[in-house]
């Protein structure tokens, strides 16, 4: 039954109803607009020294940085890209395409380069302007995202905003390969006889509404698949946004949504070069973010750009530029280089020829040459569970520490009265943590250890599915190296952060 949630009596009907999703999306959009309004004029509190006094007490800041950015990682663990099914930005983008120019996205934009640049730009802007500390800046960021989603919808067909500018969607796409949840057809080959393929094309329909003797008809357009997927051809969940438009459009009830085994999509194919680059950048940024709490490691990681800035005589912005380039690209590439080299060397072919043989005598046919990013695409696969574990650790720690602010933020969305009551007048006790630190540290260590074990198991599984023209042992050695170096840094950070205090 759990392999098809539509079979569960009430839940199935709710999931299949377009109105469930319309109401959820409408609610999410209304909340997003309210968040922009609640945060727009709130920067700090006049007379209060701490400029970022409203960082957690303001509802906009709290909801966005604690629950939206961090909480959805926990959703992704179980349900892959399912946040995209209710995300107000993606929905808004899709709605606006109906009245827009419906231009096709140029081929060169259909790679992961734009979204990788968006990820780096977002990190740099948040770091430089400390957007996460100030509700008015957070509200402006949200307003900008709404404007970009509308702009993309006016220009392009499909969900261009999701493809070009939403790093969250790309991250969920990576984690969706592991999630124990999928959308597939019930029976392979069952769609061959379907003449209109309405699941993909959407199409339009007449609707009839009658009230007493009055009968009304209206012509409505069905929503099509925002990413042009054919359900029968989905073998990997990373692109599917789980919007369920195809389920609503299919006249033959051929599609199911349900649970499956973990990591089901991993190893079927390498990450395409663009997505491998996205993962590499994500690896660098997550490593740098994680190491923030281990000062010695952070200083060691930032030593090269510091020295380069000194040599070039660059201070301030120059150093920030070098640091961003280092953290987002050079550092993670260097972290993966030993893995690539080990696998590449294992593919060297050495043939012993008889002394009498001519140097150009035929030997075994040469193996196919796998390019650098093609190999990184394979080596990146077992790193996905590790990154998910690190993301989960960050999410759990953040939610544990800050979730207590939610009741305050709900009672006083601006956050001013709550801050004053807690910190100045002391008429309210400060929010506590959900789980005591002595228990939490073991939970997060367990999460990280689990991520490392799953990554090792993923490496084994991916090695088993490699093409035959390359060395599986070499790949396995490379994958172990790719997992070992970041794992050592993450475990050291966690121990230094939570166990040695
Ligand atoms: S890709 Fe991003 S913007 Fe699009 S639906 Fe998913 S989370 Fe929302
Ligand atoms: S395959 Fe179906 S659920 Fe997935 S994105 Fe397309 S329409 Fe939405």
From TrEMBL:
Q: Where is the 4Fe-4S ferredoxin-type domain?
A: 231-260
TM ranges = 23-40, 65-91, 112-131, 137-156, 276-297, 318-343, 376-397, 443-463, 475-499
Sorted alphabetically, which Pfam families does this protein's record hold?
Answer: Fer4_5
Q: Identify the domain of life.
A: Bacteria
Q: Which InterPro entries match?
A: 4Fe4S_Fe-S-bd, NosR_regulator
Q: Give the UniProt subcellular location, in the record's own words.
A: Cell membrane
Asked whether the keyword DNA repair is assigned, the reply is no
A GO CC annotation recorded here is:
plasma membrane
UniProt entry keywords in alphabetical sequence: Cell membrane, Membrane, Transmembrane, Transmembrane helix
**This protein is called what?**
4Fe-4S ferredoxin-type domain-containing protein
Q: Which organism is it from?
A: Geothermobacter hydrogeniphilus
